[in-house]
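quick one, 204 residues, struct below
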Amino acid sequence: MLSTSQERLLRYWGLNMGIAMEMSGGATWPMFRYSKAEQARFISITDDLPGKAMWVFFAATVVVFLVMAALAVVLILLPILALVAPNPADLTPLPFVLAMALVIIVSLALSFPLSLAIGARLGDAWGGGTCAAAEPGDHDLYAKIRRQFLRFALIAGAVFVPGCLLFILFDIDAGPVVEMLKLVCAVSTLGGLVGFWRTRPKRN
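---
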């Protein structure tokens, strides 16, 4: 039996994945794969979610995550760098990259689920969302989602370190990569807005 907060996270993550799957035509998302039965469960627990709750959830989640990511930089990255290299001129690439990887892991493994939980709580409180009826497989699905969050965070941190070191070792210009990431973020944001617009008419 899921707690109230766990049920909310399951329901609103189901909303997020439902929009993603609708926008991608049902394509499989790397590291976030779900069976047909799990996808159907996502749809069933979000069908009656009001449109206001959806908007509150996404807006609150984004704001809270950005604040927490900034706090991770201030409370984790900066103290580590100050400890390792009190004189910034003496800072070498490896400690900086490792500290950044730690910030990424903390942000994705802790801050991201917490921001989702806060967004879901506000979605219900301010948007009129209500608990969905429980089903036997909900606990396993929730546990799977939490494992996916942790795995995503660990892989992101692990890929970041060798990726940065390769750029430093071979003196690769990161400019084009940064511009490509900006483009990907812009396209993702636009896709999300389109997804909201297509989903909104189905909700109250």
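The mean pLDDT is 83.
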